[in-house]
């Protein structure tokens, strides 16, 4: 257990720092796409963002900080309404971590709710970290737990969460809510979201230096035993370039008392079903157009596209409008990686 570069009161990472030899991105891609290795077994070394990329990150924060703050206030008010007593936020590492940090601050400061925040790993096709969940349930009521993340793409992680938590509930005789609560729900997969709009959540733009200096989670049995939490790398060498605390402080600083008194404006009830239908048609269209047989190779939305460009090498990036400010960072990454 550790807090990364965050204040210890903001989050507890239930991850195991490990040493694992990073692979070149091209080699990692070859092993994953050949089916020889699962993506969670491998990791490539992160690098610090270029000056040009860092510039578009700051532009994104300046442009969208107020909207993100308002959406987080909507989400915080909803969580306060559906949970009585103390609230246990469980963010999905690592994109969910800054979201959970800011939510915790809003729930405590503006809504007066006792709130704890943990960040744990969930991995597609491998499930959620059961050891981390057991640790949480030894300290908090199951009814207090809420799983939070930044956004949905295709809904794969939301579906994985429902499946894995359902199985955990059966095995342990508990009743954890398997729903995912997000800022933005592009595909109608979340239990609740402040919006269905595909807008740039600025924390998606960076990797470790916006997420407490931790890598994405790792599940490789050469470094993770049966009683361990899922693993991660800790990039302590990036500390002089870390924006994690600055970012959450910046978003918190956008709030006013009125944000937590106002009635929320969540998406209308039928919007989630509409988004699910649009998502299915969209994925089918792209798969047919480009001859893609594995839906995991399609990453819809600005957040997912960012993550892929940061960590992997996509065949192409499809952009609706090259002049939209929210895709400026994608164009920088695509040029830098020759995509």
Uncertain segments of ≥5 residues (pLDDT<50)? none
Roughly how many Å is the radius of gyration? 19 Å
**N-to-C order of helices and strands:** EEHHEHEEEHEHEEEHHHHH
In terms of DSSP E residues, the strand content is: 5-15%
Total beta strands = 10
Structural class: alpha/beta
Explained architecture:
- With 339 residues, the protein is of the alpha/beta class.
- The chain is built from ten helices and ten strands.
- The strands form three sheets. It has a six-stranded parallel sheet, sandwiched between helices.
- Helix 5 links the parallel strand 7 and strand 8.
- It starts with 11 loop residues before the first strand and ends with a helix.
Summarize the structure.
The protein is α/β, with parallel strands linked by helices. The protein has ten helices and ten strands. The model has no long low-confidence stretch (mean pLDDT 93).
Give descriptors for this structure.
339 residues; alpha/beta; 6-stranded parallel sheet; two-stranded parallel sheet; 10 strands; globular
Helix and strand topology:
Layout: E1 12-13, E2 16-17, H1 25-33, H2 51-82, E3 87-92, H3 96-109, E4 115-120, E5 122-123, E6 127-128, H4 130-137, E7 145-152, H5 156-172, E8 180-185, E9 192-195, E10 231-232, H6 244-252, H7 257-261, H8 271-290, H9 302-311, H10 328-337
Parallel strand pairs: 1-4, 2-10, 3-4, 3-7, 7-8, 8-9
Antiparallel strand pairs: 5-6
């Amino acid at each position: 257990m550790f807090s990364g570069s965050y204040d210890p009161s903001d989050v507890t990472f239930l991850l195991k720092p490990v040493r694992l030899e990073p692979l070149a991105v091209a080699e990692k891609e070859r092993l994953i796409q050949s089916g020889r290795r699962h993506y969670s077994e491998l990791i490539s070394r992160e690098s610090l963002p270029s000056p040009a990329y860092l510039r578009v990150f700051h532009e994104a924060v300046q442009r969208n900080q107020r909207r993100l703050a308002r959406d987080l206030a909507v989400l915080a008010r909803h969580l306060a309404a559906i949970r009585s007593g103390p609230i246990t936020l469980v963010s999905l590492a690592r994109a969910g971590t800054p979201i959970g940090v800011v939510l915790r601050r809003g729930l405590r400061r503006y809504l007066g709710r006792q709130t704890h925040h943990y960040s744990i790993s969930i991995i597609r096709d491998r499930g959620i970290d059961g050891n981390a969940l057991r640790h949480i349930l030894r300290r908090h009521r199951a009814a207090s737990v809420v799983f939070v993340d930044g956004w949905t793409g295709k809904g794969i992680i939301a579906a994985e969460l429902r499946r894995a938590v359902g199985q955990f509930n059966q095995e342990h005789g508990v009743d954890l809510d398997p729903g995912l609560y997000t800022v933005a729900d592009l595909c109608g997969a979340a239990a609740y979201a402040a919006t269905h709009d595909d807008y740039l959540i600025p924390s998606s733009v960076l990797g470790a230096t916006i997420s407490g200096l931790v890598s994405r989670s790792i599940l490789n049995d050469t470094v993770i035993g049966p009683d361990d939490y899922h693993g991660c790398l800790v990039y302590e060498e990036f500390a002089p370039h870390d924006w994690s605390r600055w970012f959450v402080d910046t978003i918190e600083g956008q709030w006013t008392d009125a944000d937590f008194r106002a009635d929320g404006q969540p998406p209308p009830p039928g919007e989630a079903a509409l988004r699910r239908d649009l998502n299915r048609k969209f994925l089918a269209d792209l798969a047919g157009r480009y001859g893609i047989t594995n839906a995991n190779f399609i990453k819809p939305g600005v957040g997912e596209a960012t993550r892929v460009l940061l960590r992997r090498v996509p065949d192409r990036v499809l952009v609706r409008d090259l002049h939209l400010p929210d895709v400026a960072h994608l164009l920088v990454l695509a040029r830098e990686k020759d995509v």
